[in-house]
Design brief:
- This protein has helices at residues 2-20, 190-204, 232-241, 244-251; strands at 42-45, 56-59, 65-67, 72-78, 99-107, 110-122, 129-130, 135-139, 149-156, 168-169, 179-180, 184-185, 210-211.
- The protein has 252 residues and is of the alpha+beta class.
- It has one domain (2-251): Glucose Permease (Domain IIA) (Distorted Sandwich).
- The strands form 2 sheets. Strands 1, 2, 3, 4, 5, 6, 7, 8, 9, 10 and 12 form an 11-stranded mixed β-sheet that branches.
- It starts with a helix and ends with a helix.
Amino acid sequence: MLKNMKFVTVLLIAIMSMMFGTEAFAASGNQDWKWPVPDSDKMSSCYLDCRNHYAIDIQANNGMEVYASYFGEVIAANGYCGHNYCKYYSCGCEGGLGNNVYVRHIYNGQSYVSRYGHLAEVYVSVGDIVTEDTVIGTVGSTGYSTGFHLDYRVYKGYTEAEDRRENVIDPLMEQFIELPEGFHANATTWCCYAYEEDVKEQYAANPKVVQTARAASFSSECCEKYYLCESSNLKMDVAVFGDFWVRRALAH
């Protein structure tokens, strides 16, 4: 019975993917996935970010809604962590990821998993079928997190709820997700501003992807400025580039 239900679920996802996706077996995305935090247009940490950061951090207020990026099935949902505050250490929840959700997708004929970390609350359960209109949780700062944000990661050619970095892709540079209007970096590392420009240049070639986000004012709620701490990255920026990038980050 369970095997039959599993088959029906996978078949349903495949059918919906063909309905809502694009041409099969495309090499990259076609901006069909939705920006997971529509009330924020700020990227506080970019992909790699000069520190092997295999995710996009979306800066947002505590409690802002987080949506599934694309149609799929929830394969992991962990919402037990109550340490929802900024911290410069790991509280131990989920290895530092805090409350999280993993969603499995079939897109362009291939398997993908999207991961949503550091959530305050989780609203879905394993086995739930979600769409781009499904609120899966809220932005938080659980786990090892110095400020309220969503840690957003995408895996390609993978179907499990585990962290396999060899399967991680950059959802922006590969143009999987739409870019919200006003998208900009608010980071402390120089490379994220260069990354912002590269992303905008790529997306500018396809006006389809520049969508209007639901505007919302952002108020800094944690540690005064997100990720402004004595890190090796910050020291490297000062040493190599003087204080220009540091002042630019502080100004945002």
